[in-house]
Design goal:
215 residues; alpha/beta; Rossmann fold; 7-stranded mixed β-sheet; binds S-adenosylmethionine; SAM-dependent_MTases_sf; methyltransferase activity; methyltransferase; transferase
């Protein structure tokens, strides 16, 4: 997460009314949860969802404990309800309204597509923010699939690879704006391949100076 992306999360959380609710999918060590929770007004809450699987890239023994410790250290633990479960499990039982959803969970197409289903719980005019929206094959194809036919979710723009979607009828301009991001997505996929092949100078030639994947 870049500083600019953190600023977007913080501002979006700050716009949630008192008594409102935010859901985060994918918390890891709690970095984005801290940013979101710190932006919330008194009386608003964050439900942070992560199964903390120990058999996956982000899993490691103690990840949940580190997340809880980071929330406590930041002084936001009382505003965060951390659910150790998958997004699908929590969504299946969810019946409340949401003002904001932040999607940063598993990045395969099917999980990302299911995670976008959280938008059904968001009040009209509310927001769905999606991390790695244009730097991952699975997340981008899920976005394209959902937004191609949605009549209730519009693509507004991006900060790096953080996409901002609003619960509102999409216009033709909104759909074209999403398509206009595809060359940048293709460039990011090429950069990822170059980094895997240890061809950093070529990635740099494409404007990517970081050793990490584009995000
Ligand atoms: C990229 S990390 C999240 C990073 C975090 N948002 C941050 O800013 O530090 C992705 C997280 O998604 C979690 N995850 C994996 N499968 C999930 C699922 N089905 N539902 C919710 N979270 C999941 C992983 O355990 C991992 O911690």
């Amino acid at each position: 997460m870049t500083r600019d992306q953190a600023a977007v999360l913080h501002a979006a959380a700050g716009a949630v009314p008192a008594g409102g609710a935010v859901v985060e999918i994918g918390s890891h060590h709690g970095r984005s949860a801290v940013v979101l929770a710190a932006g919330l007004r008194e009386g608003a809450r964050l439900v942070a969802v992560d199964p903390f699987p120990d058999d996956w890239r982000y899993g490691a023994a103690g990840t949940e404990q580190r997340c809880r410790a980071n929330l406590a250290r930041a002084g936001v633990a009382d505003r965060v309800d951390l659910r150790v479960a998958t997004s699908a499990d929590v969504r299946a039982r969810w019946d409340g309204r949401l003002d904001l959803v932040y999607v940063d969970g598993k990045h395969d197409h099917w999980t990302a597509r299911a995670d976008l289903g959280w938008a059904d719980h968001v009040t009209p005019g509310g927001w769905v923010l999606v991390h790695d929206a244009f730097s991952s094959l699975g997340v981008t194809t899920a976005l394209l699939r959902v937004l191609a036919t949605s009549r209730t979710l519009r693509y507004v723009g991006r900060t790096g690879s953080l996409a901002r979607l609003q619960v509102a009828p999409p216009s033709t301009a909104d759909r074209l704006r999403l398509l206009g991001e595809l060359p940048w997505w293709a460039r990011n996929l090429v950069v990822k391949v170059l980094l895997r092949l240890r061809l950093r100078p070529l990635a740099r030639a494409l404007g990517h100076g970081d050793a990490a994947d584009p995000y």
